[in-house]
Amino acid sequence: xxxxxxxxxxxxxxxxxxxxxxxxxxxxxxxxxxxxxxxxxxxxxxxxxxxxxxxxxxxxxxxxxxxxxxxxxxxxxxxxxxxxxxxxxxxxxxxxxxxxxxxxxxxxxxxxxxxxxxxxxxxxxxxxxxxxxxxxxxxxxxxxxxxxxxxxxxxxxxxxxxxxxxxxxxxxxxxxxxxxxxxxxxxxxxxxxxxxxxxxxxxxxxxxxxxxxxxxxxxxxxxxxxxxxxxxxxxxxxxxxxxxxxxxxxxxxxxxxxxxxxxxxxxxxxxxxxxxxxxxxxxxxxxxxxxxxxxxxxxxxxxxxxxxxxxxxxxxxxxxxx
Length: 322
Description:
Elements: E1 6-13, H1 17-29, E2 34-38, H2 42-53, E3 63-66, E4 75-80, H3 96-111, E5 118-121, H4 126-136, E6 144-146, H5 150-164, E7 171-172, E8 175-176, E9 184-185, E10 191-192, E11 195-196, H6 197-204, H7 209-221, H8 223-231, H9 236-250, E12 255-264, E13 270-281, E14 284-288, H10 295-313
Parallel strand pairs: 1-2, 1-4, 2-3, 4-5, 5-6
Antiparallel strand pairs: 7-10, 8-9, 10-11, 12-13, 13-14
Helix pairs in contact: 1-9, 3-4, 5-7
């Protein structure tokens, strides 16, 4: 087995809506010169590889192909998007048993091989699956991470930017905790280019700041449900989120992203995976930067963590017998 990392190679396991959109986004990014698609439906993987590869003359050179687990060993990033889709009216937590079973099968294959890159879990419920991957993959914990609330945070910035009529890239705020209904918006340290968010609101908008926060939070929390109700699945936003995380890894950017990781005492929490700002570089997670939270936010975060722990407690954390 290969022992070196090919930093221009990515593997995507699962090429449904999210996996194929991610492959397309990564081709457009020019980050990788080799991309292997792995799926239980080999024909589907081959078809996606062919379809996307036909756009290479308009993008950057890249060898895109359908492969097997033997082809993922030296990939710098292994992206896991395999799993059942969230159905209308179904929460991410409702998906847990189906997708934990699927992930365990994938992890059994990964354990057989000396994979040397970063394992990026995207499938939902991402925090639960990130915890399972950290426990069962056999990989160093810093190299196992989940996409977490990167997308939630992007949605939040987008909606705040629209509400205040400012560039969303200048909005600085984080969503912590579960990628799901118990997520926490860290309003207490939100700002627009260094100016506290509440001050910017009163400069730009008339009305109640509390009402503004409530409406924004509700919109962010229901975004996925709204999209699923209208088109059946979400995939473009998460694909771009995966691209952003891959950029931080491949370029060793040391970027601070709200990814899911198993906590080691942050906010007094352990043995649970949830999102907190982390420094992300070529070796995965290089440290956490948990922001100061007010009392109410800390309580909400602990409640979010307990909700996830309750789900974890009912899981069978053993791999299928070989």
